[in-house]
Amino acid sequence: MMTSRHCVLLTALACACAATIETAIAHPHVWVTMKTEIVYAPDGSVKAVRHAWQFDDMFSAFATQGLDAKRKGEFTRQELAPLAQVNVDSLKEYDYFTFAKANGEKVLFIEPVDYYLDYDPKKTVLTLHFTLPFKNPVVAKQLRIDVYDQTWFVDFGFVRKTPVTLVGAPVACKLSVAGPAQMDSSLTLRLNQLPADAQLDPSQFLGDQFANKIAVKCP
Amino acid sequence: MTAFVLVAVAITCLAIMTEHALAQGSPFGGPHPGGPATLPATGIAGWILAKQSEFYRQFSGLIRAAKSDGSAAWSLMGLSFLYGIFHAAGPGHGKAVISSYLVANGETWRRGVALSFATALLQAIVAVAVVGIAAAALNLTASRMNTAVNAIESVSYALIVAIGLRLMWVKGRAFKATLRCAREPASEGGAAVTYHCHHVHHYDDHHAHSHAADRRCEHAHSHHGHECDDASAWSHAHAPEPTELAGPGGWQRGLSAIVAVGLRPCSGAILVLVFALAQGLFWVGVGSTFMMGLGTFLTVAAIATIAVGASAWAKHMATARSGFGMLAMRGVEVAAALLITAFGMLLLGGYMASERMIGF
């Protein structure tokens, strides 16, 4: 006879089973081409990350659907202001897809400032501008900023030409930028070599695969 | 009692999941929850994912080109079809739910194919209807449209849970009845076959049937128990009667599953439709959506056929062994019903990123 313990076990099993069957990820539905500035204070401390994210045309059409505009097919910054507000509000839960470490320690951001949306009527695309201030500006010998969506719903990529700029940084600081690593054989190998019972932290791998990595080294 | 416990567990599970779901919104403002992080796809899965992306990325360019060049529209149709085939292999197109449903109900592959077709068609129709009404006719904003889609989604997932629970109830009873029968050896040499436990059918709309059979068995049990037949009689009782396969009753049976799974529009289709609308080529978007549906149908039907084949094979093996075999088959049906419930709950709770629907 089935006891309640059996039932709990069965339900848990079914849930686990269902989750396993359908863990395949969907392809991205939003593409972001980004340009980033890292802003320094006069004392040489890092104080903010300034993003400009250009969305793909299909998503831009979706986002601007039904919005009032004085001139058809064009949207002013004012007309897009409510949308920009919704954008930054909802990005909060995702930590703005921006993960920073200064001298090996996690950096906290406060709520974004100076945010607005621009519309390019020629390319019919939206660009979201926002600045993420550091909670505590820090003098960093090693600064690392990763931008990615680990669920890969949003596909982030740097713009080809000067993707990252340092604003007001000490002259000796060196910037390096790298896009997401391709899913190469070395990562597959690493995954395959893990023991079967290994505690997997998916972000550890996804971070590598999807992350757009910015590194700044200052002496 | 067992059923009560199961329902209680299900509700608790659901409550926990819903709470989790409420804690997360979507990146640019849509209310839909995101799913858990998953490992990057490798091998075949990775290739399928890459193909989808590749096709999807070409849609906007082709729709633009279709404004001045008719042949671009045909390329778009072909690409949409291919996209549908690959895309249905990803999450959120009901293949798992449909497959489990077919196994739980012991359906034929023909019904599986028909069911896949109907759900894919309904999915396309819903996508066109949502964009056609909300965006084209009412000129609603994306966020309003998202709210509508999310409401539809929730209804769809709740229906899947309902179907799962209902099947669990029916199949659970059948399982119990079989269990009881299996415990009672045919003490009089199996001569008395007046009441067959095999009357406990596996068709979900034969609720009353199972009720009756169950009672009969209990009744038999209280007397001597010798009237419960062993499983050998079940094998021929299993062959579906023609009336159950055709006719209005047959369609009604699958209707709940078609609606539950087909109600949820594909977010890719919605994005394509809205983009086509913005470009003044809504009908091109509609054509693309139906071609995606056709591709989706092929993939889901193929997977459903495999599921039905595997289940039929298991049944064949099970009937070869009497007694335990029938119990095992009932067990498989209960498990499939349980799986449907689990799918529904995970989807409803946002634990399983079916396919995120997002926007502003």
Number of strands of chain A: 11
Q: Biggest chain pair contact, residues each?
A: A-B, 62 and 74 residues
Contiguous low-pLDDT stretches of chain A (5 residues minimum) are 183-189, 191-204
Order of helices and strands of chain A: HEEHHEEEEEEEEHHE
Poorly predicted parts of chain B:
1-25, 30-40, 187-248
Question: What global shape of chain A is seen?
Answer: globular
Query: Structural class of the helix and strand makeup of chain A?
Result: alpha+beta
**Helix/strand structural class of chain B:** mainly alpha
The total number of structural domains of chain A is 1
What is the makeup of the main sheet of chain B?
none
Percent strand of chain A equals 25-35%
Count of separate DSSP helical elements of chain B: 13
Number of domains of chain B: 1
What does this structure look like?
- By secondary structure, chain A is an alpha+beta fold.
- Chain A has one domain.
- In chain A, 27% of the residues lie in helices and 35% in strands.
- In chain A, the strands form two sheets. In chain A, strands 1, 2, 5, 6, 8 and 9 form a six-stranded mixed beta sheet that branches. A five-stranded antiparallel beta sheet of chain A has the order 4-3-7-11-10, with no helix packed on it.
- About 10% of the residues of chain A have low confidence.
- With 360 residues, chain B is mostly helical.
- Chain B has one domain.
- Chain B contains 13 helices and no strands.
- The two termini of chain B are 46 Å apart.
- The N terminus of chain B is likely disordered.
- Chains A and B meet through helix 1, helix 2, helix 3, helix 4 and helix 5 of A and helix 1, helix 2, helix 6, helix 11 and helix 13 of B.
